[in-house]
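Chapter summary example: a protein plus GMT.
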Amino acid sequence: MKIGITCYPTYGGSGVVATELGKELAAKGHQVHFISYALPFRLDGFRENIFFHEVELPDYPLFEVDLYSLSLTSKMVDVVLYDELDVLHVHYAIPHTTSAWNAKQILNERGRDIKIITTLHGTDITLIGLDPTLLPLVRFSIEKSDGITAVSRHLREKTLTNFNLEREIEVIPNFVNTEHWKPVDSERLRERFAPNNEPILVHASNFRPVKRITDVVRIFAQVREKMPVKLVLVGDGPDRAEAEKLCRDIGFCDDVHFLGKQNGLVELFSAADLFVMPSQNESFGLSALEAMSCGLPVLSTSVGGLPELNLHGTTGYISEIGDTDRMARYAIELLSDKRRYMRFHQAARQRAETQFSARDIVPQYEAFYEQILEGDSSLSVPSLQS
Ligand code: GMT
């Protein structure tokens, strides 16, 4: 099959999922064409069957605001026609689904049909998609997609309610390549972060307010009052400075490692003991899954799709948003009980392998493409009133 994939190419879970999906599909013999404004950051090294089409923006003084969504449409039209795509799979509805719908209209005029599949990832539905400036367009685009997938049951329900829709939305959860994301020897790294073999808490994200980074620091502060422990923070973003200041104010900068953006996450996760995700909103929580696949139990909140991933009392613990006391208590309990910790460590890895492995999930996308191409999108599109 020839598949066009559009996603955000920079740091962010939707781009990661799209890129990993493209890599897996290419490895299975499909031809994959990425269409975006930059090379997706997880697209490392040369891979057969993968092509990249850069969307260039016109440089003209009259266009003070960026016309990306229109340039993307034009590029989609070209790639569909000249690379003979079977399907366009866009990740994150805004503006990708709308650009794809426009491309479909242009192609239809030329007698060429193309199926559009949208994967909804999170804030395209729960936050920015609800903004009055975008809502009618997002709703329309979702309705007009030939197929829609959501990364969790929670996100499917949110989409149907928030946009007052009645249509099939296939839940295809996010996945990891468990051959890559697995516990590896990382003694050297561990010694660097925790010279006296202290337990290590780790967090990785884009440090946006929704991730509640200062909660990570507060949880760490409470655990540190009871036991020697270290904190490793991976990533960067708007809330990093505040978290750094909090560490300085509390006075434990020596025990906290701010690493910024990193690529070697498998080694970092393998060196750590517990993944902390106190998010305010999370339709899935991909980085928690990557950590679980490396054997890390997860301390998370109960929001969004997190309870579909992290099983309370089995692969980690779940608490209410902002309940840092409880999260710290759970961390102390788990890190002080070696046998219980080992059970959680094994269960986390096992859940990633049995429920969320690329081996099992990628075929669900392939089957969905087939279903849409055969014309059975099980659509029940209501009239456009909201
Ligand atoms: O909505 C965002 O925060 C952006 C989005 C992204 O592109 O990184 O993240 C969402 O998609 C990820 C991949 O499916 C999910 O793992 C994240 O939970 C989700 N983020 C939120 O829902 C806040």
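Key point: The CA atoms of residues 5 and 34 lie 5 Å apart.
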